[in-house]
């Protein structure tokens, strides 16, 4: 069994389409691997307590639970809207506090962490030969924890448990407070995979340091091995030549995207570029991809109208899926476009789209549509072109031809 983990969202705001790149890309990869016979267990987390959630709760005069529950539900609903398969397990921080107490205590007992008053810190200098491995930097070149705690042994040490004066607090063996962000993921991975090494750990490129670096060193301290064999760090989505940012005002939220484009268009966008590279989104690019999706959908619907039975080429299909499973997205995208150049090969493309969860191949042409298509062909044969054109416009509007 392959063990996968993807860092999930901190649920305090609406996700934008850049936030969706890791989960959609993971979904494409896992769907392809499972079709090719791989057994994958996918663990995903929800950060439902954090400084950002606390700030949002204060801003809206609500509880942290009200904020996190609302945005978690919103995030999970996007799985349906974007046709993303649910992970094998989703774990929340607030449901796992006892697990985190035990994990932090284990780090203390191994001499990798220490408590000062109500705070618990990881002792980075004890692992200075390992720390920096994920970000490929030496400890001396890394920026220390930005917090201003004066009770730490080293400025590089990071909090596992925080004695906080703001927001919700939990009673723990270390005192009232809340867990540090960097500890939750390594704790979940250690528990649900029983200390075993992940095959793949994923997240946005911005998480390499300090989050993934800190995850890895905690796992190493307990299990004496890196937390993952391979790391997948996804590039940013840029709009108007800049990374999406509230301060710049160039964010495209997920539901806003779906008002103008289909979920399939977003998936095709992911396949069009290497997963690790930034994608510079333009309105022209999205319109072009939407047009391509519309054309593919029309071909698929027409194949149903004409009851076409395709002969599938398993070798070609497996080759495309193999590239998707290896995250060679741009190569798979090129192969798919090759299949779409000839009607004889449409079936191969349709099969791959179905495996990858594209909605366009879920369309079921009705008997009424088939009758309308038959009538259109009869009118053409009878050279009643005016009436035929009226039906043709209806068929095109429905993307049936």
UniProtKB/TrEMBL annotation:
<keyword id="KW-0862">Zinc</keyword>
<keyword id="KW-0436">Ligase</keyword>
<feature type="domain" description="tRNA synthetases class I catalytic">
    <location>
        <begin position="4"/>
        <end position="288"/>
    </location>
</feature>
<keyword id="KW-0547">Nucleotide-binding</keyword>
<dbReference type="GO" id="GO:0004817">
    <property type="term" value="F:cysteine-tRNA ligase activity"/>
</dbReference>
<keyword id="KW-0648">Protein biosynthesis</keyword>
<keyword id="KW-0030">Aminoacyl-tRNA synthetase</keyword>
<feature type="coiled-coil region">
    <location>
        <begin position="279"/>
        <end position="306"/>
    </location>
</feature>
<dbReference type="InterPro" id="IPR024909">
    <property type="entry name" value="Cys-tRNA/MSH_ligase"/>
</dbReference>
<protein>
    <recommendedName>
        <fullName>Cysteine--tRNA ligase</fullName>
        <ecNumber>6.1.1.16</ecNumber>
    </recommendedName>
</protein>
<keyword id="KW-0067">ATP-binding</keyword>
<feature type="short sequence motif" description="'KMSKS' region">
    <location>
        <begin position="243"/>
        <end position="247"/>
    </location>
</feature>
<comment type="subunit">
    <text>Monomer.</text>
</comment>
<dbReference type="GO" id="GO:0006423">
    <property type="term" value="P:cysteinyl-tRNA aminoacylation"/>
</dbReference>
<dbReference type="InterPro" id="IPR032678">
    <property type="entry name" value="tRNA-synt_1_cat_dom"/>
</dbReference>
<keyword id="KW-0175">Coiled coil</keyword>
<dbReference type="GO" id="GO:0005524">
    <property type="term" value="F:ATP binding"/>
</dbReference>
<feature type="short sequence motif" description="'HIGH' region">
    <location>
        <begin position="9"/>
        <end position="19"/>
    </location>
</feature>
<dbReference type="GO" id="GO:0008270">
    <property type="term" value="F:zinc ion binding"/>
</dbReference>
<dbReference type="Pfam" id="PF01406">
    <property type="entry name" value="tRNA-synt_1e"/>
</dbReference>
<dbReference type="InterPro" id="IPR015803">
    <property type="entry name" value="Cys-tRNA-ligase"/>
</dbReference>
<dbReference type="InterPro" id="IPR014729">
    <property type="entry name" value="Rossmann-like_a/b/a_fold"/>
</dbReference>
<feature type="binding site">
    <location>
        <position position="7"/>
    </location>
    <ligand>
        <name>Zn(2+)</name>
    </ligand>
</feature>
<feature type="binding site">
    <location>
        <position position="211"/>
    </location>
    <ligand>
        <name>Zn(2+)</name>
    </ligand>
</feature>
<feature type="binding site">
    <location>
        <position position="185"/>
    </location>
    <ligand>
        <name>Zn(2+)</name>
    </ligand>
</feature>
<dbReference type="GO" id="GO:0005829">
    <property type="term" value="C:cytosol"/>
</dbReference>
<keyword id="KW-0479">Metal-binding</keyword>
<keyword id="KW-0963">Cytoplasm</keyword>
<comment type="similarity">
    <text>Belongs to the class-I aminoacyl-tRNA synthetase family.</text>
</comment>
<feature type="binding site">
    <location>
        <position position="215"/>
    </location>
    <ligand>
        <name>Zn(2+)</name>
    </ligand>
</feature>
<feature type="binding site">
    <location>
        <position position="246"/>
    </location>
    <ligand>
        <name>ATP</name>
    </ligand>
</feature>
